[in-house]
Amino acid sequence: MQSFGRSTIVVCGGAGFIGSNFIRQLLAGHPKARVVCVDALTYAGNKENLKGLPARRLIFIKGDIANKALMARLVKKYKPSYGINFAAESHVDRSIHGNAEEFVRTNVLGTAVLLGALRDAKSLKKFVQVSTDEVYGALPLHSKKKFTETSPLLPNSPYASSKAAADLMEGKPIAIYGDGLYVRDWIHVDDHCSALVLALLRGEPGEVYNIGADDEVSNIALARRMLAYFKKSESDVLYVKDRPGHDRRYAIDASKARKALGWKPRHYLNKSFKMTVEWYLKNGSWVKRALKRAGVANAHI
Ligand SMILES: NC(=O)c1ccc[n+]([C@@H]2O[C@H](COP(=O)([O-])OP(=O)(O)OC[C@H]3O[C@@H](n4cnc5c(N)ncnc54)[C@H](O)[C@@H]3O)[C@@H](O)[C@H]2O)c1
Prior knowledge:
Blueprint lengths: L7 E5 L4 H13 L4 E6 L18 E5 L5 H11 L3 E4 L6 H6 L2 H20 L6 E4 L44 E4 L5 E3 L3 H14 L13 E3 H11 L7 E4 L14 H7 L7 H14 L1 H11 L7
The chain binds nicotinamide-adenine-dinucleotide.
The site of nicotinamide-adenine-dinucleotide has 27 residues, from helix 1, strand 2 and helix 4.
């Protein structure tokens, strides 16, 4: 199937980073489809991310996916054909130093409640659960090995995810964990979302699809690229104490998604780095409000 037609798609966690980009892409590419976005608007959720989208085709419900009665009502009322779940506690430092129970409540219980409600929806054709490469654990730094869909799950923290440092844009040094040699596979959010759209349309029920761009870059290399962009020196890097259980390397083998979904990424960090940094610079007030909501004084990579 190539199009959602007039379908209703429930998007949980759609006010967050990836979810909001997914909704934008879906509504733009499928002009008859309707989205029901359920988001608890935690520190990470921001309704502003959905600004400018057509109210006629986007119903926003502030709510918790772990709320059984709400999810049952929603399914009954909107009769969704598709569902996708982005709702998660996703900040690794909070999971280690903060309230790990919140992670279990949303990521485990919330998903179970959501699945229970959708299972009862006779209208449902397909559901996609968005996960993370970190469920596979860590890879050795100098190896060619990548995670495939059959790799065993070996997570090393309640949630491990690193996000770009907005600090430098405020004239602060970039805080780097440990030696900074941690390697991640970077993917543009638009490419991630196009893979998810295809997973909903073409994915086989019960299958796992790894999504990655084969674009491995270490944190320190990325920080140096930022330094070069801002014409700053190496002295603007602040090495901070390492995070417990910090995974050395993640790399995803996305060949199954490429073949089975007919997907390929269009952006690579080399080219899209400048565009991404400039988006954040242009949207400085959005960044300030997002950091304030998250109570972030320093972001580390
Ligand atoms: N951002 C990444 O680099 C990355 C990498 C791999 C996987 N992922 C996964 O992708 C998904 C989306 O990530 P993101 O970066 O957009 O996250 P995010 O933190 O920006 O957004 C999560 C959204 O979920 C909402 N939410 C949290 N708890 C909720 C609840 N109980 N009920 C309803 N809504 C709730 C938040 O308000 C927020 O809008 C997550 O499942 C995450 O684990 C993200």
